[in-house]
Amino acid sequence: MAILIGILTSVGVYLMLHRTLTRIVLGVGMLGNAVNLMIIAAGGPPGEAPIVGRDGPFADPVPQALVLTAIVIGFGIISILLAVAYRSWTIDGNDEVEDDISDRQMASVRDPSDFVEEPDDRYSQEELL
Amino acid sequence: MSRLLPLAVVIPLAGAVLTLATVRVARAQRIIGVVAALATLGWCIAIAVSVDRDGALHAVMGDWPAPIGINMVADRFAAMMLVIGSAMLAAVLVFAIGARASDERSPWYQPAYMVLMAGVSAAFLAGDLFNFFVAVEILLMSSYVLITLEGVDDQIRSGTTYIVINVLESILLVMAVALVFAATGTLSMADLPARLAALPDGVRLGLNLLLLLAFGLKAAIFPLFSWLPDSYPAAPSPVTAVFAGLLTKIGVYAMVRTETLLFPGSLRTVLLVIAGLTMVVGVLGAIAQSDMKRILSFHIVSQIGYMVMGLALGGAAAIAATIFFILHQIPIKTSLFLVEGIVERDTGSSILGKVSGLGRRSGWLALLFLVSSLSLAGLPPFSGFIGKVGLAEAAVDQGQWWILAVSLAVSVLTLVSMLKIWTGLFWGPSNTRGAEGGGMLRHHPLMSGITVGVVGIGLAIALAAGPLYRYCERAAESIVNPVEYETTVNGQAAGR
Q: So what's the pLDDT on residue B103?
């Protein structure tokens, strides 16, 4: 179980480090499932269903309740990520995450020394917008 | 009273259901939304009064006792956050209706906003770590919807960053929850302190760091802040105002809870260094920007540094100052973003230089901005000063001179960047390149009324600083000595 959690986590982290949203979604799924398994593992050894009237070693019901909630939340997260990825695809034709405005602004300045000498960077931003 | 505690969550959820049912009738949605928001605010005030008089309140769902059932706890700190939080949410809702922003016209705005309210209330009331996670998920989910509601290019781009970062934060939080459960066998905030104290040092440190990482990502502290100034400005201003005022503070709230209740007195120096770096990096980022919205977003980061500073200093006095600082910061940040929202709506831009001379075109707006920015910088008559004096006193008491020096320097730099907005947007001759020429600006009465109201709350905090500060001190007392918290939860559970 611990090894499986480790594999899922590392694959998930690797996928999340990509720039394409579909891979990020897959990575989130992997990581989410790794954590769900982790909660189950935290619950200790399996046992009887904890219902009044039975005897014997019971399974801890709390982590099962937790993991159910976590699975539902994970489903919600993945569906909203997919929706965003689809929207991004209809707008751009790809699903890569772009740099933010400041990054693009800095990148548009070819020589860094120009940027320092320029008294105010508002003009370059105006051109961009 | 205790049993009705969940109403703070139930009212907005009911509002969400009703606004979903009336999805075709925009007017009905607005009325339901405002009524639900005001009802929540009223109930939160009732909770706060009752908590201050009779001590912490505690409610369990469906009569399942604490370690198994869902429990909600309101102590003074939580009650205070509830009041200020729901007040801001109600105010911004009315502002958004007045703004007639393109996203507010979407039929899905009101339901998402109501769910956000429910999530905020649930997060402040959460009595165990897992419920806190669920509450944070609720509010994050609706914030994802709100930040990408218009679905235009820029929103999707920065919304993606926001969503992915917050999903990562949630995963880290569940991971921390699973490990805490594996190590202690409980998640109730009342049982955890004793069980955690019994753990070996290494395990405790690991759990502490993992929780700090998750909450720090939410609160945008120093190495983990870069997502915030990128994603917040893309959302429409009313939404940004709520996010800026509240969402990062929930991360801070969780950090205060974990550092005082669960892991008292550990990692002080690390937190202090992080606090200093957060302040400095945030304010330097703000000075470098030339869009009002982005400047303000960097200030969120910088001000978080002050809160972490108080938390790191520890002790009742510093925690009281931190609580007061959070209390003042929420309306001030919200009002600054509301002013920005008015500027952007009435002139079409918030970039310094593109718009200028607003002081001539709208004296009121300039005044509102001036009051809240001076308060943000912490000049004497305003509320920011009182919070900062409290923090400074705590730093002097503990002989941490360098953090005092850093915090004072950052205050000056905050003022500098606020002056940059002032000279860029409000001072000087009116700029006729604006969309509608250089005439006087006419504001929507709802928008300006609400902004005046929120700035008024900020001023009221300064005027009523004495009683409020004493309330914060009492709240800090009950945080530093969590006996009350534990007996409220466990005493009721045992008495059943």
A: 63
Which range of residues forms the domain containing residue A26?
2-50+58-98
B134 touches chain A (CB under 8 A): yes
- Predicted confidence (pLDDT) at residue A55 exceeds the cutoff of 80: no
Q: What is the CATH number of the domain that holds A18?
A: 1.10.287.3510
Which member of B144, B168, B181 has the closest CB to residue A63?
B181
**Of B365, B386, B387, B346, nearest to B455 (Cα)?**
B365
- Residue B290: name the closest of B354, B231, B369, B230 by CA: B354
Find the residue in B nearest to A78 (Cα). B167
Q: Which residues of B touch A42 (CB under 8 A)?
A: 178-179, 181-182
ipTM > 0.85, yes or no: no
Chain A residues whose CB is inside 8 A of the B141 CB are 76-77, 80
In single-letter form, the type of residue at position B377 comes to A
Residue A112 in this model has a pLDDT that exceeds 70: no
- Phi and psi of B58, rounded to 5°? -150, 135
Q: What DSSP string runs through B246-297?
A: IIHHHHHHHHHHIIIIISTT-SHHHHHHHHHHHHHHHHHHHHH--BHHHHHH
What chain B residue is nearest to A127 in terms of C-alpha separation? B354
A16 within some domain: yes
pLDDT per position as a tens digit, B399-427: 888 888 888 888 888 888 888 888 878 77
